[in-house]
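Appendix B, Record 12. Input sequence as logged:
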Amino acid sequence: MFLAVDAGNSKTDVALVGVDGTVLATVRGGGFRPPVVGVAQAVGDLAALVDTVRERAGVTGPVSQVSAYLANADLPVEETELAAEISSYGWAPAVTVANDTFALLRTGLPDSGEPVGVAVVCGAGINCAGLGHDGRTARFPSIGRISGDWGGGGHLAEEALWWAARADDGRGEPSALAREVPAHFGLTTMPELIEALHLGHIPRERRYGLTPLLFAVAASGDPVARALVHRQAEEIALLASVALKRLDLLDEPTPLVLGGGVLAARHPLLHDELTRLLAERAPKAEPRVVTEPPVLGAALHALDRAGAGAEAYRRVRGEFGGDVRRGLEGA
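Logged structural output:
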């Protein structure tokens, strides 16, 4: 048996899986944020979930492997620190820790042959990781503005607010966002919304609901909102093409795995622009949108380490919702 962990900013999934691909127990908890609470506390919260999943499966002793794909494991030094803390709990003699973007990548790759491909996740944040021939990797720090990042749901929500404020007071282009953004919160004007946000009358986390609104306003033809959606497509295509170039994969057919809430929502404007950009910059890339839970990627990695057979891969994929891998134009 092994433990598969996908710990994101907003939720954490832990699964106990048999080497035959049978999912013995699962549990879901809150977000995994070592930068906010510290490594010891973050892993301590994870330990509570591990205890729960072991209890549900009736398992008391160590398992053979922990495959943990973690948000905020953005730098090698962070991976090392997190792996040491997880190892200290004695859950398994072998512990693998990697950024959660690699879980998305593994989910979208075939279960046989050399693991080669690139993944871009655009959910609350944005990140990219790739595997090339002979085990080469390409990745980005994805720490935010200081590491050159742009986009993701949280960033798009802030951009919608920024452009709505400027459209309202005349510093920016006219935009329906000036009307629709305050209306989203049950208010009439941007000054009312700015005051409510500044004074804490509206919880900060409610801002993230602006991302679907931004796409709806863009779909109506608003030029400011459309420009933001096009910029998001540009960033996704840029991450993908740069990673493919680093790995010398631009000239061969290569899986390009796309995931996260923004991409999984399959907004036509975003996907149409992304399709166009990829056709120009990475025409041999094979884009596919993955909607299975990323903990599946952690489970697949553990099966890889165990040298499992084809039936085990089919079983675990089936238990996590099947092998749903589609191109950008697919239904």
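The radius of gyration is 21 Å.
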